[in-house]
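Please check the following for our workbook:

***
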Amino acid sequence: QVVCGYGSQDALPFRAIKEGELYFQEDREVNLVELALATNIPKGCAETAVRVHVSYLDGKGNLEPQGAVPSAVSTLTDDLLKYYQHVTRAVLGDDPQLMKVALQDLQTNSKISALLPYFVYVVSGVKSVSHDLEQLNRLLHIARSLIQNPFLCLGSYVRSLIASVMYCALEPLAASINPLNDHWTLRDYAAMLLSRIFWTHGDLVSGLYHQILLSLQKVLADPVRPLCSHYGAVVGLHALGWK
């Protein structure tokens, strides 16, 4: 969106208050009737410089775009964009062998640093597919490949990855409603992944251990939480170790 008031070449009119040495900027009068009825909409002070682009998982492994293509995408090369699309479709698709190859390359590729925020965003889609254990597992596999890639510096993305992993471990997922769904194994895997992220990248975020510990203890001590959430907290604490 446009940031108004910056870079304007117009002089700002000021008025003085008679009662004291106080000055204030004089604003233009706005006709609310015209504004409400859209009969005289004021023009913007500049062109729109930032656009929003949203992608979401439709539950079938497809990334559904909404809105215009973000301007940031233009900074990526065509090869990187194609790589991102191919890897995402392979991991969330129906071919297990293709998924394995894509995850292996994601774990070892040294030229995908620019795509890190995009893959982290894909992993954050766990909340939109909480009913699908298979998709949740695949998103966690993407997170694991990212943290195991020695050429990637996760930096500030550590928090986002941990939030997605802890969601799988602690939240009463929609898939948990069906007793035939083995969401316990998913929580075990998420706990293991949580521990690995902390021990390999925990030094990038100050006070991370205590934040994770507090979150797990809070869930475990909450009597309202279901058994599956308590289980996730227990396996999470166990994975972190006795430190």
In short: DSSP finds nine helices and four strands in the chain. The first helix runs from residue 32 to 36.
